[in-house]
Structure formats: structure tokens, C-alpha cells
């Protein structure tokens, strides 16, 4: 496969520099690559390697970590500093997690642990070279990732409308939002998509973590491979191993045929592990082993399958605190969190609200075959002053329901029925007012128009709108149960005879946000 991979600069085969001080290993790598049809050069020290790099542009550099005159890492740093385009693969000592993670953090495309599996070696080199051969995704010049992590000044809601042509690569267009925090997120996605380093997406529920993971995949050279999304919290513990690693026929009760696991299904692509913080400890150890050894063994099999996946995981939990509390393995956290991508809650990027409403309404209208409604200025103001603890998902649910209930072309959100936040939440998280362009959005309804929903009138014997009435009732019961269980969704689901998945679905559908958002 790689023999036909041309160098980016010519139609000749790709050119690779191998750096290793052990002559036997160097020869083994050289022969393996020559057999694949690459042009290969070799060096035994950092100094020799640099001399060759100064004279020639390579497609990839494969370097041992320990060299007589320094660490492979310093070669990587030097390449990076000189803005060289070579992809670098680092070979680390057996079991040296620190080296592997350090190399990925320093910008290595990938790493290989000793003893090097030649099949894996060929696959990693092929993908480094392929990536080099593809035109890199360019960032719009105005949105290069800032160097410091300091929060940028908020963009006013009255800022000029987005440019007519979307400056972002197509893979990022679905991620709506042009606020400063979202631009940083997008720039980071483009950057991290270039390597194989594991990414951990952190953000509150409903902020769009899965969309971000999909964008990382779509911007990467694995975009033509599968994207396999797994919700770790939705799989019963007894099935986790079979689901992740596969199982042979008859290896457990009810397994009537061989089946692939997620790792096999995601081969050549990206494995997205959502709610990684909910993975039980026993499974965390097995996942760590799979990542470290890059092999998985299906249940009932004596053979191991090579793992060729990029792992992107996501959590709304503070995994560092989970580690401290002994609920998450430190070593797994270290492995998954090589690159962290933080997705800010919607309340920190309220200037995206209007664009989000437009995109979500267009999507809902398309799905339901309805014309796209116009969101009234008052409704927008109502949304802007709502906490939206459930983030974009809550916004989506609110718009969904408003569309189902609305008549005519204009969509009106009623602050009393649709948007009254839970009293406790409102107290805990007062919402800063957002400044909307007075020309676009009229003033909100006077406060006197609002009346509390609680302690109110007797319910009508026959509700005028059954769905609305049932939603309200369901919401009340869920909130009551959640409060009774300290907002522990697992316990609340059990009290109501629901699975955790059903509970999550209902919470999301009804836009209920909990103050601590923990599963206990
Ligand atoms: N920036 C965005 N642009 C457009 N749609 C978005 C955006 N962010 C989120 N959404 C939409 O909001 C919904 C929730 O997003 P997603 O499932 O990615 O969130 P999440 O953070 O993974 O949630 P959870 O933590 O509950 O798994 C989806 O329908 C998604 O398409």
C-alpha cells in the first residue's frame, strides 16, 4: 500500500529518516521500509540525524527515544521549533507510558513501544506518510489558536453578522458558533486532528462534546475510516468486555456467533468513548491495557487483534477529582488526557445563541418537513435570560417543543410555560443579562408579567393540550425524584423503574438540569 504513496513534494516514493543507534534494529527498520517501497536514510545519533535533516526534506522521521547524544524528544522539539513538516514517530522503551505521552504532547504524530510489532510499524508509517501527502487543513488566518490560555474578551452580541462564506473547513461547519471560545475550540480541533494523540473532551452535558469528537475525526486523515461512538455509561457492566473487545461464538451465555467489539469496528478510524468517567474500575484496567499494548483479545479467543484506532474520549466529570477520589485510574487518565479540549458551557458563549437557534431550527424543520419558523425577538430575549444549564441540548429541546406547539410562521416561547427554571437552580446560578442589539430585539416582558408556577391554581379537569400537560407532569415527577435522591440520576431511575438510559433521555428531552450533574 505504501509503495504507491508518493512524497508530497514529488511523484517519487516517500522518503523516511530512521534514527536508531542499535545497528541491528536500524537495519530491521530500514529493510522493512525498503520492502514497502520507501526511500530510506539512516542515522545513529541526534547530530547525524540533524545533519541529514538540514540537507534533505523527509516525509517522516522515525526515531528511537534514547540516543547516545540525547533524547529523541529533543529532535522532535527541534523539528517543531524549525517549523518542519516531517511527521515524527517515536519508539519508546517497553512499558514507558511517560515517554509515549511526553512524545505525543511534544507533537509526535504517533509512538511505537518496544519490542516493535512490524505490522504496526508499517501501518503507523503509512498513515504518517499519507497524512503528509494530503493537503493540511488550513485555519482561517483571523482565527489562529491563541498562544495563551487566557480567556479572551467576550464578543458583543451586537457584533457584525458572520461573513457570508464560512471560513472554516467543511468538517467544522456543523459546529455552530463564532464566539471567541468557539473559535479557540475549532482552531484546536484542526491542530489536534493532525496527530494520533488521544484527546479528552471536557464539558458540561449537552455542550456538544460528541460533535467536537466527530469534528476531530472529520479533520483527521482517518476521516474516511469509521467513527464509532460508545456511551460508556449505557452499557451493563457484565457486557462491557465483549462490547469493547469482541467475543467468539459460545464464549458467554447467549453469544450465538462471533462478534467484533468497538475496537475492531473502529479499525482505521476513531473510537469515541463518551462518559468515560462512568467506566467501572475493572474495565478501566482492561482499556488501559488495550491502549498500552495496542492489542485486544476477544472473549474466548487465544489470538489478539491489533488495535488501529484513534481514541477520543469525553466526560462532564472532573476526572482529576475522580482520580483523587479513587474512582478513576490515574494511569488511564494520563493516557487519555494527552490533549485536553475544553468545551465551554453555553452561558459563557451566549453570543452564539442566535446562530445556534437558527441552525437548530433549520435542522428541526428539515427533520419534521416543516418550513423554518422565524424566532420572535422576544423569544430570543427570553432564551438569552434563561440559565440553559442543559446547554445546547436543552436549547434544542426547547425549540423542538416550541415548534411542535406553535402555529403560524413565528415561533413564540412562553417564559412561564416553557422556560421557568427550577427555583433552586435559578437561585444557585443567577444569569448575567445579555446585551442584545436593541434594534433587533425588543425589550423583554416586564417582570410583573411573570407569575410563579408553583402553589398555583387547581389543574383543569381536561387539559387543553394533552402533550404539554403530560410533559409538565413528567417533569414534576422527575424533578421530585431527582431532588429526593440528591440529583443522583442512577438512583432516581431505579426509584421510577427506568433504566439510566431512559432517565437520561427524559432529562434531556425535558431540559431538566441538575445542580451537581453527578451520578453519585
Ligand atoms: N455548536 C453546536 N452547533 C450545533 N449543534 C450543536 C452544537 N453543540 C451541540 N449541538 C447539538 O446539541 C445536541 C447535544 O450535543 P452533544 O450530544 O454533542 O453534546 P454532549 O456534550 O456530547 O452531551 P452529553 O454530555 O450529554 O453526552 C446535539 O443534538 C448536537 O447536535
UniProtKB/TrEMBL annotation:
Q: List, alphabetically, the InterPro entries matched.
A: AAA+_ATPase, AAA_lid_NorR, CheY-like_superfamily, Homeodomain-like_sf, HTH_Fis, P-loop_NTPase, Sig_transdc_resp-reg_receiver, Sigma_54_int
Gene Ontology molecular functions: ATP binding; sequence-specific DNA binding
What are the residue boundaries of the Response regulatory domain, all occurrences included? 15-129
| Domain Sigma-54 factor interaction stretches | 175-404
Kindly give the Pfam families that the UniProt entry links to this protein: AAA_lid_14, HTH_8, Response_reg, Sigma54_activat
Q: Do the record's keywords include DNA damage?
A: no
Which keywords describe this protein according to UniProt? ATP-binding, Nucleotide-binding, Phosphoprotein, Transcription, Transcription regulation
State the name under which the record lists this protein.
Sigma-54 dependent transcriptional regulator
Species for this entry: Xenophilus arseniciresistens
